[in-house]
């Protein structure tokens, strides 16, 4: 079975409310156990919800090693190692491989508008620096550049490149990746939680779903309903994700998701600066959402 299937949870990185906003390892262990007991197929550290962009290389490696140790082989652990710098992405990828990561997720360089040829070279260089599987991570709203299906096809012959995660929200882009992947025995994952059912119908092998940090069982049951061909149940469960997604849209990633987890008893702390605490009055809306899911809260 592929590493990249089912519901993979891009876990938030818990922080303390101290001067350094240091990582809260106790809260991380609690969250890992929640995610695994909810039936997730994998855990992903340092995606967008994991705030990779505000964490140091050492923090990423030390925290990922902790998660790998806590998970202890129960599910695969994927580590985000992409960077604006090819050199840094290679270094991080090698270090993640050395601590026992099962696979890597590599976002394209952001800030600079590089060409497709340069982007292909970046992915090739990173992929050829390791022996473990790697997926590309497409999130054009954050990087300013869509990974074209031509770039994906161009790097698909590299053994370690095993697929792509698409968070564009555009099913035409997802379909382009699926067309490439079909002949290459690679996986395409969806990263837009509102499009899980649609992506499955097109042929996606799994979802990297931020909402599954909180409502793990709902998202896992959605995937199981899709696999069982239970269209009516899947439709209902896909709609069941929306109350949480409505809350997530009220703040910067992962501000409101972390506050929702915190009010539900998982002390993951705030997002790291420059993202601040949630706006005053938002707790009331979050609590109403938790009540909808019958999640106990403080």
Oligomeric status:
single chain
Query: From the coordinates shown, what is the CATH architecture?
Result: Alpha-Beta Barrel
Count, helices: 13
End-to-end Cα distance, whole Å, is 40 Å
Run of helices and strands: EHEHEHEHEHHEHEHEHHHHH
Give the amount of beta strand, in percent: 5-15%
CATH topology: TIM Barrel
In angstroms, what is the radius of gyration? 18 Å
The helix/strand class is alpha/beta
CATH top level assignment: Alpha Beta
Shape: globular
CATH superfamily: Aldolase class I
Q: Would you identify the regions where 5 or more consecutive residues have pLDDT less than 50?
A: none
What is the count of structural domains? 1
Q: Summarize the biggest pleated sheet.
A: 8 strands, parallel, barrel
Helix content: 40-55%
The number of distinct β-strands equals 8
Biggest sheet strand order reads: 1-2-3-4-5-6-7-8
Task: Write up this protein.
There is one protein chain. By secondary structure, the chain is of the alpha/beta class. The protein has a single domain, classed as Alpha-Beta Barrel (TIM Barrel), CATH 3.20.20. Helices cover 44% and strands 12% of the residues. It is built from 13 helices and 8 strands. The protein has helices spanning 25-37, 57-71, 86-98, 116-127, 140-143, 149-155, 171-182, 196-202, 216-227, 231-240, 242-248, 255-263, 282-292, and strands at 6-10, 42-45, 77-80, 103-107, 134-138, 161-166, 187-190, 206-208. An 8-stranded parallel β-barrel has the order 1-2-3-4-5-6-7-8, surrounded by 7 helices. Helix 1 (25-37) packs across helix 2 (57-71) and helix 9 runs antiparallel to helix 10. The longest helix has 15 residues, at 57-71. It starts with 5 loop residues before the first strand and ends in a 6-residue tail after the last helix.
């Amino acid at each position: 079975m592929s590493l990249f299937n089912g519901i993979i949870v891009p876990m938030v990185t818990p922080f303390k409310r101290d001067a350094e906003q240091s990582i809260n390892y106790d809260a991380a262990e609690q969250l890992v156990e929640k995610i695994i007991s909810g039936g997730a197929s994998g855990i992903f550290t340092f995606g967008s919800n994991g705030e990779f962009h505000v964490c140091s290389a050492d923090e990423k490696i030390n925290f990922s090693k902790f998660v790998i140790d806590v998970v202890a082989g129960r599910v695969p652990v994927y580590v985000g190692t992409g960077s604006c710098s090819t050199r840094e992405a290679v270094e991080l990828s090698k270090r993640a491989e050395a601590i026992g990561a099962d696979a890597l997720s590599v976002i394209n360089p952001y800030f600079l508008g590089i060409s497709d040829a340069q982007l292909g070279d970046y992915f090739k260089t990173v992929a050829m620096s390791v022996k473990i599987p790697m997926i590309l991570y497409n999130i054009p709203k954050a990087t300013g550049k869509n990974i074209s299906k031509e770039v994906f096809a161009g790097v698909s012959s590299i053994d370690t490149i095993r697929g792509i995660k698409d968070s564009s929200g555009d099913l035409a882009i997802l379909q382009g990746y699926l067309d490439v992947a079909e002949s290459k025995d690679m996986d395409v994952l969806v990263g837009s939680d509102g499009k899980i059912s649609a992506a499955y119908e097109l042929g996606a092998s799994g979802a990297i779903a931020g909402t599954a940090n909180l409502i793990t069982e709902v998202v896992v049951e959605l995937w199981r309903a899709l696999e069982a061909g239970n269209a009516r149940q899947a439709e209902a469960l896909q709609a069941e994700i929306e109350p949480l997604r409505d809350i997530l849209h009220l703040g910067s990633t992962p501000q409101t998701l972390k506050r929702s987890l915190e009010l539900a008893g998982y002390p993951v702390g705030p997002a790291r600066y420059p993202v601040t605490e949630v706006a005053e009055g938002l707790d009331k809306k979050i609590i109403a959402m938790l009540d909808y899911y019958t999640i106990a809260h403080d």
